[in-house]
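tool=predict chain=A
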Amino acid sequence: MELIPEWAPNIHPILVHFPIAIILLAVLMDLLNFFLPDNWWDDLKSTILYGIGAVSAIAAYYTGTWAADSVFLPSGAQSVLNEHADWALWTVWFFGIYALLRILLHWYQKMDQQTIRIGLFVLALPGVFFLYETGDHGAEMVFGYGAGTGQLVEQQSTASVSTDSLQQANTTFRVSDNGNWSWKIGPNGVSTLLSRFRWLEGSASQLQPTIVNSGNNYLLKISADSTTNFFVGKESFQNVQVDYYLDLSDFNGEISLVNHMQDAQNYDFVMLSSDGTVSQGRVSGGNRQVFAEESYSASGMLFIRTVGNGTHFRGYINKEMVVHGHGDAPEAGSVGLKLNGTGTILIDRMTLTQLN
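tool=predict ok
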């Protein structure tokens, strides 16, 4: 018998019910204890429940962080995931400290004082609110955005991204009313590159941009010659998700997918190296800080997603999260690409979505 059923994406949805049930039961019994005789229920039993609830909350929190790294989320769920994780962390800290406080009061034999008992019960109520917010955001991800659902169906699908699935009839750079944009490469892709982006290092001419055909699909081909080339869009965004469809098969070096660019010395990045390393971090004052680094193995046309939302930063390759870092919330900035290496890169599409 397997610990995780085939239908479950991970163990988190199985464990998450325990802290909710145990902590709420502890609070309820803590209240009823004011009216029940001591030979039926007492404060020690409530403290044991709070302790078990705190331990189960820790288990649910850490399995939740692992679950977030294994489930591909739609753009609307990214902010909900951040809120869910933040409220969960507050819940863990609250009930961990609260359970420890009750244990210490038992140790020093203070629990027989009615004032302390009432104060402890009142003190537990904010934790119930934290627990509610955690569960509410978790339920929103599952029932609102379908996070982790349809696992059996997903197991039958391929994780690779085919160029054919990205085809559109016409070249477009479409900007929605809220500022989100989508760029599908077409016959006029070079002129779109020149009009929509600006260069911080290098120049467009150094990239020798050309349009190539791949079946019925148009791709933008850019060439790197070992000099740094850094170009970004002209608008600034705060919380943002950017999707790229790139083929790096003939590129040797490092490509940084840049968010929150203030200038050439200050920006956030997800960087892919031809040696199979992907890292996520921040350049501040020209100094690079890596928040997370992993290895990856993928080739051909890649779907790459970068997410910068508050203090959470994520990178996905072919719908699998490969890096998840944390840092201070950045200021609004531009998005773009920075190349350090030699060879050619094929671009099929870029899409930017602002997050709440």
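Confidence is low (pLDDT under 50) at residues 150-171. The longest helix spans residues 75-107.
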